[in-house]
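Q: Predict the assembly, please.
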Amino acid sequence: MKLHLDRSIKTPLYLQIRSQIRQLILDNDLSPGFRLPPERKLATSLGVNRTTVVNAYHELVADGLIQPHVGKGTIVRPPRPTEHSFDRFANANAIQPISWQNFYTRQSERMHNPVLASILDEIGEEDQISFALGSPAGEYYPLKEFSEISKEVMRPGNWQVFEYGPTIGHYPLRQYLANWLGQRSIHTQAQSILMTSGSQQGLDLLTKVFLEPGDYIVMEEPSFLGAIGVFKAAGAHILTVPLDQEGMKTDVLEQILSRHRPKFIYTLPTFQNPSGTTMSFARRHKLLKLAYQYHVPIVEDDPYSELYYENQPFPSLKSLDEHEHVIYLGTFSKILFPGLRLGWCVAPFPVLEQLSLAKQHVDLHTSTTVQWVMTEFCNQGLLDEHLPIVRKQYMRQRDAMVTALTEFAPQGLSWTVPEGGYYLWCELPPGMKAAALLTKAAEKKVTFVPGNAFYVSSGGKDRIRLCFSRHSETTIREGIYRLCKTISEILNQPHPSGTTNRPRYSEPLV
Amino acid sequence: MKLHLDRSIKTPLYLQIRSQIRQLILDNDLSPGFRLPPERKLATSLGVNRTTVVNAYHELVADGLIQPHVGKGTIVRPPRPTEHSFDRFANANAIQPISWQNFYTRQSERMHNPVLASILDEIGEEDQISFALGSPAGEYYPLKEFSEISKEVMRPGNWQVFEYGPTIGHYPLRQYLANWLGQRSIHTQAQSILMTSGSQQGLDLLTKVFLEPGDYIVMEEPSFLGAIGVFKAAGAHILTVPLDQEGMKTDVLEQILSRHRPKFIYTLPTFQNPSGTTMSFARRHKLLKLAYQYHVPIVEDDPYSELYYENQPFPSLKSLDEHEHVIYLGTFSKILFPGLRLGWCVAPFPVLEQLSLAKQHVDLHTSTTVQWVMTEFCNQGLLDEHLPIVRKQYMRQRDAMVTALTEFAPQGLSWTVPEGGYYLWCELPPGMKAAALLTKAAEKKVTFVPGNAFYVSSGGKDRIRLCFSRHSETTIREGIYRLCKTISEILNQPHPSGTTNRPRYSEPLV
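A: Predicted assembly structure:
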């Protein structure tokens, strides 16, 4: 596909791209089913911003000439069907295709999360050093143990492993978790634990049970993008509280609570995603006190607290809560395997019952097979054996990333050093935008998540999140080197591309 | 726990039960944590209807004295905390527990499905002959093959099996399914298939994408209770079309479509649940024609069509659809293993994209591990080897059930003989109620689902659904013998319990 852009004329570049591709399609030089180059690739080859290509493709989709396919790129559409294919039914000559978008709900229209989708799509692109995906390192997975246990659990005669099971989850696994959480001062019982298909499902169920469109909720900013996505789709008004090095600023929270009655406060107090921050002990108490005072439930999302690299973190809000105001979400995704999709929710009894009822409508129950195998894995003490191993490895990787940054970082780049979890949260040199940096960095085969993905508002454009969990120390060093080199090059350009974006395309699309 | 009922006084039995249990709790004869007997058991031991005990327990819950625990029965509550435990925070002496029900959504309040819950809870009660649960027979599961493949797929080095994956699903599995569906004249591509956590999740995603509260949808009556539950919870107005032996009555459908604009028509055209009916070829065409004419999408739920015991069933609506009006749901739950929670949805591209976006918010993706193992199982040809085995077995079981009914059925009991699937749909002798029969039958250790569970309206009280998939021919014969004996006994009672229920409790709770 040959395109020729003319920068001397006034026609915007995206319209030039659009009209040239349109002509190629109408002339049948690009036939139906032809896969257009990925936006990033075409942008690179034409020497334009990715957003320019994104906008051109957007116009061509509106023209009905091309069609994006989830995860599979963009293809040329077949021509509209002609009338003679419609002769099967009497009076059916005028059968119209359904205009599906007219059938969708308002909730459906609020669903957008290109960042998360592109992070998930990125899996498997092997030449990239990706600091984007927040996932454990595959090389530490205890595969031998897990596969042996799987085979044993699925042994002939043990057909219960493949049966329908209770919506609330497999009892022995909930019993194990109750005991395991007890060792972390969360005193609960199997009866108060609901197994979920990852903690993302916990968020979705909470949304179903608690959030009407227009309801207020409170969350930290920045925060977990999957939570922002599901709360936004539910039509919630999201009130945000900024973070400092002690976590959520409870004085700001107090102001909010004195004016609004949110359905809940969502917080990720330990090794927060993306900022790495841990809420101080005093703030934890203050937060609980405010929750009690204003009768607001707290949703505590706690995927990372077992991944501590210095001291054990402060007790969870759930363990400090004496008045059943905290709903707690946990998951195996960050400490063991994300692909199993297995998490849990600890909640006061009436809430747990309501969440179970919702889950029954959603998927009946989480995979019996996965739960039984995990139960055996845990009961053999293998989870407890696994945690010290990954703590040690991730600590080294964190240190490798910090060391490399200290060595290679150009002036103006700063970063946090988290005491646990997966993420370094960086502030770019003044004037530099994360989206522009990502385009350049991807050319050098290193990626990350631009900070604005973690903001409800338009903030975070000068921040990036770097995940250190997935690569060896050597690879991390190489990736940070590439990244810092990219930043330096942008800083040294006469017109840094980060500041020459035309304003109308300033909203990054990745 | 000793209770003494006095039938000579006017106080209703449920109030007698309630006040005696209350006294036992207040006297601390039943201490906190004590598990009350299951409703059915207590009912049997007291010689009362189960609904009587249900109502007594309901009052005790309202009194704050007992608490139902999902799947675990009913326990005595601890006493309310006293004030001195509240002294941790200044000004917190008056900390109130949260009144959770004030926080719930309207959708949440619409969630009720005790029938489905009790069917799932029933799993594991070994002494019962249950014709209730619509699930494959564990004894035919190909466990040896599946466990070997699991171990092989999870082998050391193959860590991708445990990673995050694309929301739309594992590509090789979708490719297998596209080809497999192609052999059933559904011509589709991997790109048009979304993997779901069982087809129940397909229904939930469709609800999220299509149904606003107050929207109309159309479905057969009777129909799958899991679909009724999720559509009701979404606040849909459900318009129902009766069935005859040719399936959904399209003349009634036409009347409905001429007056309403439903978001979709939900249908289970082949070996319908619960009626066993298969929609005729002419009706399939008529249904599609009406869908085209009125621009209404069709949701075709097709879990059973591979389980045919005579001829191959008529082509699916999806395979007959030439204008992309049909969204198709499939699942491994009925043909292989229900506990894996693995199904799929085939939909026109824009719908599939919207469903994927919804799924990303719901649980990111379905278990990678489960998908990879299933892919290998299917690619080794083991699904295609498995199907003829279960077809043969289930056919025998169906025949055993029909034979036993023919032999033992009292006058007035009638049933359908389905050409595939799992279910016989029975009409009880005149005047007999399914709920009353269930209470008596459970005492004789045989259970089923009362017909009203499958009705949107108040219909179906004189019907029962019998599932023949889970038991051997001998056990089926014994179960049908017990059931028919129960029916005969009720018929021969001077005052059949089915007709002496007080009207206010006539709505069955199971």
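The mean pLDDT of chain A is 89. The two ends of chain A are 24 Å apart (CA to CA).
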